[in-house]
Amino acid sequence: MTNWRTTPAAHGPIKRWLTADGSLSARLASTGERFSVQVLRQGRAPLKPEEAVALGLGRQRTGYAREVLLRIDGVPVVFARSVTAQHNAVGAWRAVQGLGSRPLADVLFKRSGISRQPLSFSSLARCSPVLRHATKAWAKGIGAGVPDTALHARKSVFVRQRATLLVMEVFIAQATSWPGLVSAKTIQPVWKELR
Prior knowledge:
Helices cover 21% and strands 33% of the residues. It has 195 residues and is of the alpha+beta class. The strands form two sheets. Strands 1, 2, 3, 4, 5, 7 and 8 form a seven-stranded antiparallel β-sheet that branches. The chain has a two-stranded antiparallel sheet with strand order 6-9.
């Protein structure tokens, strides 16, 4: 199980990105000429045990998941996974199903009646199940692996009409690429070519 904390272990510019309030998508979009969302998968999916706990679902192991890569000027920088109970995907969170390649922020930060619980943070070690999953999704999305170093992640639960939605974001671009400006010109590639 991944170790999540109430404060990030990261320092410097990446810490500011991890702890920033509001929409990560909007913040990323402000740093480049073109922001885009690449949908990797969306639909019914197994929930990880820690996801079910965070959502307050007990032993329920099937839900609705959406996995995406967030890109700036064509360069992928963040892997994001959002999950909710299957019945919430056709209820309070049904708008998530119709997003297509639009960011989840279009629902979370532009609609009323949604609250956000505090952020949790993790430095994902290679043995982390979250990192293993993100690595597979990243490889599927860009055909390359992630760095062999610990990566930083954050997660939080959003609540709408008492229905929960868990959002987790893994910051995969190199830590030195996260100052005030992130763009294709400043992001240093950190992924490894897959053979």
